[in-house]
């Protein structure tokens, strides 16, 4: 791309020289064929170079984009645990690095390409001017460089692309153009508010920019006047010399277009693209360095049928990055293999944090988790997660095919379609499959041809079926976080009437606020203030008349009433 930029930058100056040669030939009744052929060759070369340059620039743009954005993704995905995404400092660096994706790092490539051509054009034009006068070429070079630097200082003094109000304006613009918030915008009468707030945020940035521009006018105007004065001096001197026959008419004819190409020294085209593509790069490197300092997972193996004996936590503790209060303050539990444990508690009691640690997504800040007799801290977290099937409360709704949603990206599985249908049936989704126009290959998004949009309850059945498919593939721990939150009462009852069949052979950890679901578990743990306050069967906990009995009674009273 650099080589093509050099050629593209030299061609305008060569064209100016060929114009001078043609004028000189005409004025002296000389042979005009060579300069005409030269002009034709330059024109053809310019078209070829422009076409190849566009192709090469686009190719390098795409490669650079993929390289930088791929590094951001690798930095976010490479840690063995997901806790870094809750770290405010890491999140700050992720946010800054993601700015690279806003315009595309490839704009850096486009900007460099444009700048290279301009600078070569400017230098080549000055060489042609130097044929008339070296002093004129030096004067033009100095004035254009001074003017260009002042323009750059003026533009980047306040850069609207990175200003906070402009980021807010961009969010409001996307909010108004997309379907995500379309219903609430209309129900709550927010259309005018969104529009006016967008205009206010945009105008706020522009007012800041315009204020800076007014300050710069006091230097830009005299510098611009200097540029005009030098050009007027060069042109006047050249015309005077031509009339006095002190220079060849061909030199005079080549001088005027050369003055235009010399302006490339002061051109700022490409600066914005370079800025957009280059500014976030240090943040990408900073993110990579921060992630590289995170602890790596162990490499110990785990048995393919673990847990065979029990899953146990000992004095388990956890504090989120940047916080001082412990979410888990010493949780000790034992879940015999093949049994089910329900975890209940108020919001913020640490239920989701606990199951995230059991699933190998978060690493505890204290205590330990034992799988049979192996400390989970000594086990390869990826190997352990293959033993886990999970449906989280905030499960992801992938806009992919039903098959992809059930297999969760596993392309090596030997499960056939019949096994996927069985898992979907266990999750209560057989009727869902019946209305899929392409069966398991139906896209679960209305934005695709023949795609289907699912309801909240249908998505929950798909997510539960995905966890059951993991069990079919060999996972021995099934984690269910509010697995029926979006199902109606009948759907929930039907699902848990077959609870033992659905979870046969797996160790189950269940989190739910619905006590009709919880009571079916073998054991129940009540979490409060980061500790297990009560533990036992449903009947045992009712007899104690403690916190569990209170919560169950309050919920059951609604149905009795």
Description:
Helices cover 59% and strands 10% of the residues. It has 561 residues and is α/β, with parallel strands linked by helices. The protein folds into 4 domains: 1-132 and 248-296, no CATH class; 135-246, no CATH class; 297-387 and 479-561, 3-Layer(aba) Sandwich (Rossmann fold), CATH 3.40.50; 397-475, Rossmann fold (3-Layer(aba) Sandwich). The strands form 2 sheets. A 6-stranded mixed sheet has the order 6-7-8-3-9-10. The chain has a 4-stranded antiparallel sheet with strand order 2-1-4-5, covered by helices on one side.
The helix tally amounts to 23
Mean pLDDT figure: 85
How far is the first residue's CA from the last residue's CA? 78 Å
Provide the gyration radius in Å.
35 Å
Which class of secondary structure composition applies to the elements?
A: alpha/beta
What is the 3D shape? elongated
Strand order of the largest sheet: 6-7-8-3-9-10
Q: Helical proportion?
A: 55-70%
Provide the number of structural domains.
Answer: 4
Biggest sheet features: 6 strands, mixed
Strand content: 5-15%
| Oligomeric state, counting identical vs distinct chains | single chain
Unreliable residue stretches: none
Number of strands: 10
């Amino acid at each position: 791309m650099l080589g093509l930029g050099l050629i593209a930058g030299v061609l305008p100056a060569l064209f100016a020289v060929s114009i001078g040669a043609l004028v000189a030939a005409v004025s002296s009744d000389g042979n005009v064929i060579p300069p005409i052929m030269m002009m034709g060759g330059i024109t053809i070369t310019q078209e070829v170079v422009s076409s190849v340059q566009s192709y090469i620039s686009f190719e390098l743009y795409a490669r650079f984009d993929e390289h930088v954005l791929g590094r951001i993704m690798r930095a976010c995905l490479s840690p063995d645990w997901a806790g870094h995404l809750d770290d405010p400092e890491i999140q700050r660096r992720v946010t800054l690095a993601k700015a690279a994706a806003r315009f595309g790092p490839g704009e850096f490539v486009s900007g460099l390409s444009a700048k290279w051509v301009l600078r070569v054009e400017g230098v080549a034009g000055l060489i042609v001017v130097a044929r008339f006068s070296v002093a004129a070429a030096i004067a033009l070079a100095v004035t254009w460089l001074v003017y260009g630097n002042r323009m750059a200082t003026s533009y980047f003094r306040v850069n609207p692309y990175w200003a906070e109000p402009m980021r807010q304006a961009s969010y409001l613009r996307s909010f108004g153009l997309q379907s995500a918030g379309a219903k609430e915008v209309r129900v709550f009468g927010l259309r005018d508010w969104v529009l006016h707030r967008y205009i206010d945020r945009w105008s706020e940035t522009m007012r800041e920019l315009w204020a800076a521009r007014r300050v710069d006018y006091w230097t830009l105007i005299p510098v611009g006047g200097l540029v005009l004065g030098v050009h007027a001096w060069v042109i006047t001197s050249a015309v005077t010399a031509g009339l006095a026959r002190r220079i060849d008419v061909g030199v005079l004819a080549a001088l005027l277009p050369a003055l235009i190409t010399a302006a490339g020294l002061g051109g700022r085209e490409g600066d914005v693209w370079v800025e957009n593509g280059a500014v976030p790069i240090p943040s990408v490197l900073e993110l990579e360095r921060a992630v590289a300092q995170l602890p790596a997972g162990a490499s110990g193996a785990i048995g393919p049928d673990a847990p065979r004996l029990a899953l146990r936590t000992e004095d388990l503790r956890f504090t989120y990055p940047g916080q001082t209060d412990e979410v888990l303050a010493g949780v000790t539990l034992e879940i015999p293999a093949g049994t089910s444990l329900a975890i209940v508690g108020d919001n913020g009691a640490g239920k989701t944090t606990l199951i995230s640690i059991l699933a190998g997504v978060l690493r505890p800040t204290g205590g330990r988790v034992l799988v049979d007799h192996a400390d989970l801290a000594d086990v390869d977290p990826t190997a352990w997660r293959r033993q886990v099937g999970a449906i989280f409360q905030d499960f992801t709704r992938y806009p992919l095919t039903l098959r992809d949603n059930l297999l969760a990206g596993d392309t090596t599985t030997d499960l056939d379609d019949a096994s996927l249908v069985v898992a979907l049936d266990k999750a209560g989704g057989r009727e869902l499959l019946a209305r899929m126009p392409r069966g398991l290959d139906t896209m679960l998004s209305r934005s695709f041809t023949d795609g289907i949009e699912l309801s909240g309850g249908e998505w929950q059945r798909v997510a539960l079926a995905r966890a059951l498919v993991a069990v079919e593939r060999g996972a021995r721990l099934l984690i269910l976080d509010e697995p029926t939150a979006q199902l109606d009462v009948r759907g929930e009852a039907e699902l848990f009437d077959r609870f033992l069949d659905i979870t046969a052979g797996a160790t189950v950890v269940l989190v739910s606020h619905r006590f009709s679901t919880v009571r079916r578990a073998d054991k129940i743990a009540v979490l409060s203030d980061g500790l297990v306050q009560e533990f036992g069967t449903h009947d045992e906990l009712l007899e104690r008349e403690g916190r569990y009995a209170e919560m169950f009674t309050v919920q059951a009273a609604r149905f009795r009433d």
